[in-house]
Design brief:
Oligomer: single chain
Number of helices: 8
Shape: globular
Strand content: under 5%
């Protein structure tokens, strides 16, 4: 290093040291700087293991929609009903993916001519198929509980791909469509399971 550069570096270092020494006692009683204040660390509640939420990996192209407050409320209602039924996070993923496909998580009433028969609610359940009354199947807790009760009766649903488990309950004309919502459903369960 050339001599001039070395003297410059040492001079700057000396000034910094001297400034610190002289400033030290004058600021000793001053309020602590932001850097020296204790830092609060937020501890996040345990999130469900994504490997359990999506044990087979997602199948096919995935769809995703932005959710309104009402739709998020329906997600939370599905999760609450799943917990109340004593079922795990995977059951919530299957339920939410099913409701995303059937109603985009909107608690739909009768849609007139656009209605698929008499299908209503989050899961598009039909009173004429024995799912319950219109009032019942348009209640998110009731409709989720009815869906989960039917899911429990599917042997090995826990080990099936999501679309197969959902289709066994729903008997849809489009059985493969449930798969496209698996990632968003898993993300929603991970976000809201412990909230």
């Amino acid at each position: 290093m050339n001599t001039i550069l070395r003297k410059s570096v040492l001079g700057v270092a000396g000034l910094a040291f001297a400034g610190g020494v002289f400033a030290g006692p004058a600021t000793a009683h001053a309020a602590p700087s932001v850097e020296s204040m204790p830092v609060a660390v937020a501890v996040q509640a345990d999130k469900p293991d994504m490997g359990k939420l999506v044990p087979h990996g997602v199948q096919g192209a995935q769809s995703r929609i932005e959710l309104s407050d009402e739709q998020v409320g329906n997600v939370k209602a599905i999760i609450a009903a799943t917990k109340k039924a004593g079922m795990d996070e995977r059951a919530a993923v299957v339920s939410i993916a099913t409701a995303l496909q059937e109603s985009k998580l909107e608690n739909l009433g009768h849609l007139g001519e656009r209605n698929d028969h008499d299908s209503q609610g989050l899961f598009q359940q039909r009173p004429t198929s024995g799912w319950g009354t219109v009032e019942q199947i348009t209640d998110p807790e009731y409709s989720t509980t009815a869906f989960l009760k039917a899911l429990k009766q599917v042997d090995g649903w826990q080990d099936m791909p999501l679309t197969e488990a959902a289709q066994t309950v729903q008997v849809s004309a489009y059985p493969d469509h449930y798969a496209q919502w698996e990632q968003q459903a898993a993300d929603l369960v991970a976000e809201h399971w412990n909230s």
